[in-house]
Amino acid sequence: MRIILGDGPELVAMSLTKLFEEHGHQVVAATAEPTELAGLVEQHHPDVCVLEVATPREEPIDAAMRSIRACAGHTDVVVVTGAELSLVSLEALSSGASAVVSKSSDGDDLVAQVERRVARTPQRRKPGGRDRYFLTEREQEVLACLADGDSTARISTRLHLSQATVRSHVQSLLCKLGVHSRSGAVAVGVRTGLIHRCA
Questions:
Q1: pLDDT tens across 140-161, in order?
Q2: Is the overall model pTM greater than 0.85, yes or no?
Q3: Degrees, nearest 5: CA angle 118-116-174
Q4: What does the pLDDT look like over 181-190, one tens digit per residue?
Q5: Which of 8, 83, 138, 159 is geometrically suited to a Cys-Cys bond with 24, CB 3.0 to 4.6 A?
Q6: Cα distance between the two ends of the chain
Q7: Domains, the chain
C-alpha cells in the first residue's frame, strides 16, 4: 500500500513512516504544509492519504478533501486526530474521508484500520485471482506461517515482529479474506494460491 502523510509534525511523520513500513507498506511522501498536499497526491497517486487534523476549526478538512479529490479521486483519506472524535468525525466523514482514527489508538490498530479501508474500496480490487485480496507482502508471510500451524508467538519469532503486530496482521487477514478463523484464512489461501512459505 502506498501512503502519503499529510499536515503532521515531522516527528509524527517519522513515527508513522516507521510504523507503516514495519507493516510492509510504503510511505511515498510526507508534508506538514497543507498547501503541498494536493501536489504530492497528484504526483504520487497513493492508495491512501493519512491526514492529521487538530480540530475542525484549526484545520479546514473540507478544503483538504476537495483538493485531494480534484487531483486523485481514487485516493482514500483516513483522518487521524487528537481532538474529541465526535468533533472531527462528522465534518471529516461528510467531506469524504473513509475513516477517522484517534491518535490515542494503538499503532497496530491504526495500521489495521487504514488497511481495512483500502481493502474495502471496490475500484482498487482487481477482478479475480489472488490479487483481489490486496494482501501486503508481510500479510502473505503471516498467512504462510498460519498454514504451517504456527502460533502467534512462533510467527513473532520467525518474522521478527512483536506479538501485537502479528495479531494485527492476522486480524487484517481475516477481514480481507472474509473469514472468521485462522483455519478459514488458510483454506482461502490454499484455494486461491495466496500461500507463500516464510523463512
A1: 889 999 999 999 999 999 999 8
A2: no
A3: 130
A4: 898 888 888 8
A5: 138
A6: 22
A7: 2-124 (3.40.50.2300), 130-192 (1.10.10.10)
